[in-house]
Write a structure and sequence with these properties.
Radius of gyration: 25 Å
Number of helices: 16
Largest sheet: 8 strands, parallel, barrel
Distance between the termini: 65 Å
Oligomer: single chain
Structural class: alpha/beta
CATH architecture of the largest domain: Alpha-Beta Barrel
Strand content: 5-15%
Order of helices and strands: HEHEHEHEHHEHEHEEHHHHHHHH
CATH superfamily of the largest domain: Glycosidases
Length: 449
Amino acid sequence: MTGSSHFPVRGIIEGFYGLFYTAPERNDLISFIADHGFNLYIYGPKNDRQHRARWREPYPDFIMKQFAETVAHSMNRGIEFCYSIGSGVSINYASEEDFRLITSKYQAFYDIGVRHFMIMLDDIAAEFHHEEEQLMFNSYAGAHVYTANRLFHWLKSLDKSCKLSLCPTDYHGRAPFSDYIHELGKGLDQEIDIFYTGPEICSETISEQDTADFAAAVQRKPVIWDNYPVNDLAMKSEMHIGPITGRESSLPRVCKGFIVNTMSQAEASKIALLTFAEYFKNPDCYEPWPSWEKALKTIAGEESYESIKLFAENSLYSCLGYPEAALLDLLANKALFSLRSGEAASVSKDVQKLFDYLDSLDEAGYHLKYRMSNYALRNNLVPWIEIMESLAWAGRRAIAVLRALENNEDITAPLNWLKESVSEIRRHPKRYTGSILLPLIEYVESKVD
């Protein structure tokens, strides 16, 4: 079966907060998804001021020229380019001028070839800010229905091929869902697509049942907005480099497809995207971890596979809930158990296994920084590679302090080095392996005290 047999919509969305893509990064990502069975790219980065905070302003001419080049590139690669506007942050739904400003911006993108548009009404307060809105509408949902339907009919009068999608204010949850969602579903034109992120904003699992319940509430099959691998806001310390899991194979029965919200690190996002591509091809046969290993090899290159796998297997903390660094956790626990059982660090096989693994992490970091040929991936990962190296040094230096103590050697130098590494880890803004090595370090500190 082809990918289109399962999910008609197979897209990604540049929809995160924080540093958004450069035009070359965006164009490269469009080429990448075109090569791997995707068919839609939605533009909607929250920190683009003309998209959201200052949505009433037109884009500068030179930026529109960049957009025109990107839209043409998308067309050439068979990717539908969708422009979204985040006007919900400050719109007056009763204002003719605000409606005109939205259509003016849509018109500018229509003129460079865009035919798919979106209005983002997410991450906003569900309340009116103007008296005339309260007089005109009985509910917040009523204002959204009125505005979206009016935009939809305006687009259709411009060109019958135009489409409109909508991200609602309530975009996640479980049945029975809010009155807002039910009113939105009842009132919106049936051709307007609605997005759903699953039971949570960032969902560990998305089931057929939850999606079917949302579909019933909005009276149409939704498009799933998958907030993995995105790593913005409270997640910006995390590198989401694992495979997609927890999406039931039966989802094609109840949704139109997926849009995947990527990380601000475009190249690193490709690893998770390749696992989505495998899931889209055949959800029933999708195997996350073999797919992931294949993706690591494809993106990092054959010569860097072992190093990227060592790095990635310790960077698995995310909403998906799988163990953050399973092997390191096992090795660290075994080493600590051996030490607490009275084994000397100098002779313990478990301590040596941990030391050797930490040594391999250090070597992997060196390779990824100085030998990997995918420079874009290297640049995306450098902050996390650096904390991986600090952790590797901290663990090995902790063991070195214990061995020096056992041999009645001066521990001044190794102890200072350990403190330096621990300080680096605590100051570092990125998360890597969590606190797995902390019990070992605390054990060593207790021995020194």
